[in-house]
Write a structure and sequence with these properties.
About 40% of the residues lie in helices and about 20% in strands.
Length: about 140
């Protein structure tokens, strides 16, 4: 197992939009020296295998970063699953700030950002702090 900080990259992914643009910016900002990233779109798993694999990856992550520009059932379930594990920092990037005051979303995350670089900087500044205890 690597000593790198593990970051699960969740969020809405639609065929008509290249999901990788925010992921590329995020990974480029942090680099791969200290971090290992998991993008759930990459891989060959299908159906229920996808859910089982993603849950395992979430459970083995230090951070879950979800990019939400519009609602997605899968992303919300990923956030809830990570929050329930109680030792994973859950963060949301919402570029238009539309969901900033959503009660349910706000309850199940630890930090809210409006851009990728702000979220990456927060991780870079705090990765060495102890994991959180409790949701």
């Amino acid at each position: 197992m690597s000593d790198k900080i593990r970051i699960y990259l969740g969020g809405t992914k639609y065929e008509e939009e290249p999901h990788c643009s925010w992921i590329t910016r995020f990974v480029d900002t942090l680099g791969t020296d200290k971090y290992r990233f998991f993008d759930p779109v990459v891989g060959t798993a299908r159906g229920g295998e996808v859910i089982a694999r993603d849950k395992r990856e979430i459970e083995n992550s230090d951070y879950v970063v979800s990019y939400i520009d519009r609602p997605s059932f899968g992303t919300i379930m990923e956030i809830k699953h990570a929050f329930d594990k109680q030792n994973i920092m859950v963060m949301v990037i919402n570029p238009n700030g539309k969901y900033l005051k959503d009660l349910w979303l706000g309850y199940h995350i630890h930090h809210f950002f409006v851009n990728v670089e702000e979220c990456a900087k927060y991780i870079e500044d705090t990765w060495h702090t102890p994991k959180i205890i409790g949701g």
